[in-house]
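So, can you check this one?
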Amino acid sequence: MSKAKTSPSKSGEGISPIELEIIHNALTAAAAEMDVTVWRTSRSTIVRELLDYSTAIFDRDGWNVAQAARIPSHLNSMSYFLTEILARHIPADQWQPDDVVISNDPYCGGQHLPDIVAYKAVFQDGRRIGFVGTLCHHLDVGGSSPGSYGSSATEIFQEGLRIPPVKLFEAGKLIEPIRAIILQNVRQPELLWGDLQSQIASLNVGAVNIERLARKLGEARFERALKQLLDASEAGMRAVISRIPDGTYEFEDKVDDDGITDEPIHIHAKVIVAGEEMTVDLSGCSAQSLGPSNATLASTCSAVFYALMATADVPVPSNAGCYRPVKVIAPPATCVNAQAPAPVVHRIAISHRLVTVLFGALHKAVPQRMPAAYYAVSYVVTFQTIDPKLGRKVLVEIEIGGCGGLSYSDGASAHSFGMHNNANIPMEMIESDMPLTFLGYGLLTDSGGAGRHRGGLGLWREWRIDCPVAQLSTNLDRFKFRPFGLDGGEPAALSALYLTRDGVRQALPSKVTNMMVRTGDIVRLETSGGGGFGDPKAREAALIERDLRHGYVSSQAAAALYGHTAKAAI
């Protein structure tokens, strides 16, 4: 069985807690400045507006010591990727100043092909003292579908250009053949190269800041500080786990299908808490799928670590030290530890659903802390518009839904949650660049699960095609299995996708690959809300009246689910 790698535990010495906190803030500020650099210099809407990227800082062995507040699924796996590269592909002694190594290979430590990671080693006086890294979800990396997000792939070779760990820059010099190979195989090379240049600029900013901090502290104190930061987070996470009652807690949920067959994918977790350590056994998960709803071990461990950090009852600085008290058991050739050449582009469906399963399991241990299920899927909708004047342009939208209710509050509506942390691409920006028109965008009435604390609402969004022809691809879920409620709460609504053509509306499946649409066609997406928490009959009447006023709940649902009759207008 495969187990998660964890960073080796080593004791630090000699740096006071106050100074250590100052150093931690300096490292976090450096990662945040890298973050801002990507935001200000990137080219594509998926990076610049959707904010689907991450930045982090690593010690000399490749372990994450600080990060910006970006995408959890990236940040918890970037150490995994870097340590894999160092161990199996480009050993540390083969890195020199101003080298930049890139890769997107899920079977070298990555997650899926659109995510290209770039790392740079940081040196002082000729000795390596750390690494900086950036990861961006690129608009397109080739493959059978625009946006590289097709739902019908049966092998990773169909999903796009697969880049092994390779130096894009060597001693500061661009390796032009590598650049040429990449740009020759993608649909919008100017945007990919712009975003990749943005990543390089971010690495340079981070490296300068780390060099400055190390020079100020001295190399020996700098390295001791990084070790102590990792140890402090480990100690904090062990304390968090120790406050969870010992025991074995199990839960299961399902992903609709893999896009090829109609068989559901089972996500089962057994969480074993023993003292200050936790084991997450995923042996009960389904075998890896024929279609692209699979996750590599890096993706799976990222979800486990996120769920544990979300469970924490006190803040713990996020770094690789948090991973040490956790063991992940994920048998090879399962959907949570896919083996090559399985397709993995929709790995986020597995990761999201695993998070909800872990929340459900841990609810049995710490019921007041864990929310009901959120929408738990990245709603990926991809268009390639084909226009005689504008040419071909690719748009990747990643929509969200509602969060689960909690023991003390309603869930947030249309809120990016869980394994991603995406923002909203302004509709005006899309319309100014592409022949698409938005007909509407808003919260979806009755989509949140009923409960003493209601689940958050999902959303609806409509696109009209304004060019002669376009291609539509989707990777969606929650069309069959509703986000569950907890403690007597009701599940949330299902998701849906519709195409209206010549005034006739038809339902589409959740996973569509390269469907041809034309001028005047309208595509409508409806996303799930979050599950409810607690008995709906215990919900305060004033809250139900508020929901009715705001259109969150219809009068029919209020009567059927809450037993509530709206007050007559005075």
The chain has twelve helices and 21 strands.
